[in-house]
């Protein structure tokens, strides 16, 4: 295989950092080799810093970023329970669709594309709908808007609601301040600001959410021991995305669930190391500067940007294609 070299300037995937590519070429290890479990523990510690959290349950879900989204929702939302979703772009619609597929009762806070929800709107919607789980997209690449999340966790806790945030498009590029926001579960991906390949979904889970998930715990018959109790809650309707079992796999028990995607673990570990060596604030400032330069340059060309400047993601910029311009021809020329 010999793919052409491209400078990838879309919303993802991006060009993979050379160090990450090198890490992925390292040899396989047995999933319970001491060296392998040490790498797993190191990766958990690295992603606590990436997610800006002290959460014990910070690890990887094997699969693309959507695997993390689905694992979070199927493990948090019980069948028949109510899920409240901010719908302000394509990926809010995705959260609703996944919720429907797992048997949730969907309620939405509908916001015009290119805008964001206010805390007052969020609390009013929670008061009206009384969901089990509230879900939002941090940065939606379909609109390039970044939803403000400071204060959202406190609102959810005040109303006894669990909170979930999809930070796929912002993790590694904007501050994903999990503990400061007070949200319960956040998921991401490697293939955007983390500078890695698609195939691994970092996740962090609060103690409050972990208790809820473990109430739905079910251990497979082939590995169930007398010391492992079933949870009293509804069975999680996925085996592969059952966070209770995945948490046991990443815990000191190392209860077998799947075979960890070794090369993707290496990639995730190295991507986090690269980010943390640069420094969180330096990295976020670099993205802010690049985003501001892109916006200024596009406007200097007489082009119009999509959405509100105050809430624009720093790492994705949406621009209107002028009337009379064939966007596909422009993209084809750029590939040349």
Q: What is the strand tally?
A: 9
Tell me the CATH topology: Aspartate Aminotransferase, domain 2
The biggest sheet, with number of strands, parallel, antiparallel or mixed sense and barrel status, is: 7 strands, mixed
Radius of gyration: 20 Å
CATH architecture tag: 3-Layer(aba) Sandwich
CATH level-four homologous superfamily name: Type I PLP-dependent aspartate aminotransferase-like (Major domain)
What is the domain total for the residues?
Answer: 1
With strands numbered from the N-terminus, the spatial order across the biggest sheet is 1-9-8-7-4-2-3
Measured as a percent range, the helix fraction is: 25-40%
Pattern of helices and strands: HHEHEHEHEEEHEHEEHHHHH
| Average residue pLDDT | 96
The assigned structural class equals: alpha/beta
Report the total helices: 12
Q: Which spans have pLDDT < 50 for at least 5 consecutive residues?
A: none
Cofactor: pyridoxal 5'-phosphate
Domain Aminotransferase class V: 29-321
Keywords: Aminotransferase, Pyridoxal phosphate, Transferase
Family: Belongs to the class-V pyridoxal-phosphate-dependent aminotransferase family.
Written overview of the protein:
This protein is of the alpha/beta class and 336 residues long. The chain has one domain: Type I PLP-dependent aspartate aminotransferase-like (Major domain) (Aspartate Aminotransferase, domain 2, 3-Layer(aba) Sandwich). It is 40% helix and 12% strand. It contains twelve helices and nine strands. The strands form two sheets. It has a seven-stranded mixed beta sheet, with helices on both faces. Helix 4 links the parallel strand 2 and strand 3. The longest helix is centred in the last third of the chain and has 21 residues. The protein is globular and about 70 Å long. The model has no long low-confidence stretch (mean pLDDT 96). This is Alanine--glyoxylate aminotransferase family protein.
């Amino acid at each position: 295989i010999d793919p052409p070299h491209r400078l990838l300037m879309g919303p993802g995937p991006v060009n993979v950092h050379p160090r990450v590519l090198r890490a992925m070429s390292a040899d396989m290890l047995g999933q319970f080799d001491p060296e392998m479990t040490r790498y797993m523990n190191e990766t958990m510690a690295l992603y606590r810093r990436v997610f800006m959290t002290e959460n014990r349950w910070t690890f990887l879900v094997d699969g693309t970023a959507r695997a993390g989204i689905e694992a979070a929702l199927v493990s948090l939302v019980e069948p028949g329970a109510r899920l409240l979703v901010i719908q302000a772009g394509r990926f809010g619609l995705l959260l609703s669709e996944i919720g429907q597929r797992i048997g949730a009762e969907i309620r939405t806070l509908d916001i015009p594309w290119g805008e964001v929800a206010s805390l007052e709107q969020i609390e009013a919607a929670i008061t009206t709908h009384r969901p089990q789980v509230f879900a939002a997209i941090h940065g939606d690449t379909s609109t390039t808007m970044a939803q403000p999340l400071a204060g959202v966790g406190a609102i959810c806790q005040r109303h006894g609601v669990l909170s979930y945030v999809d930070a796929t498009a912002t993790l590694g590029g904007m501050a994903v301040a999990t503990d400061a926001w007070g949200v319960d579960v956040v998921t991401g991906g490697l293939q955007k600001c983390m500078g890695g390949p698609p195939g691994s979904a970092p996740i962090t889970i609060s103690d409050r959410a972990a208790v809820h998930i473990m109430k739905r715990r079910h251990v497979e018959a082939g590995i169930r021991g007398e010391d492992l109790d079933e949870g009293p809650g509804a069975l999680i309707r996925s085996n592969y995305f059952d966070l209770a079992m995945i948490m046991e796999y990443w815990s000191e028990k190392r209860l077998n669930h799947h075979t960890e995607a070794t090369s993707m673990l290496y990639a995730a570990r190295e991507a986090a190391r690269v980010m943390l060596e640069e420094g969180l604030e330096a990295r976020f400032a670099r993205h802010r500067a690049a985003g501001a330069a892109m916006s200024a340059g596009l406007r200097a060309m007489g082009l119009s940007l999509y959405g509100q400047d105050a809430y624009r993601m720093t790492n994705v910029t949406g621009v209107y294609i002028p009337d009379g311009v064939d966007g596909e021809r422009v993209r084809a020329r750029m590939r040349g």
